Amino acid sequence: MILAGSHYVLNGVRFLLEEANVKKDNVNLPSGKKLRKDGRTPIIFKNRTMSNMLYLSLEKVLLNSANEGKTVSYSETEIERNYLII
Predict the structure, then answer these.
(1) H helices of 1-86, where?
(2) Considering the entire predicted model, what is its pTM?
(3) Theoretical Cys-Cys bridge with 69: which of 1, 5, 43, 62, CB 3.0 to 4.6 Å?
(4) What SS3 class is residue 74?
């Protein structure tokens, strides 16, 4: 699951998932009806360019280990400093 407001790295390129405008729809597939969530996800790359990818496409490419998608997170020290937890 990818979250709005989080930073990710894909193939060495860092980006911010600005929003996740996701809707759940029933989709007719050969295997039957499925509830699928999808929608546009505006992302901002480190070089300030923007894209408006589909949620499912972005999630798949990040989860595919061959693409080496990563989530950027903060260290425990940075979290404590940002939230004044001592």
Answers:
(1) 55-63, 76-83
(2) 0.67
(3) 62
(4) coil
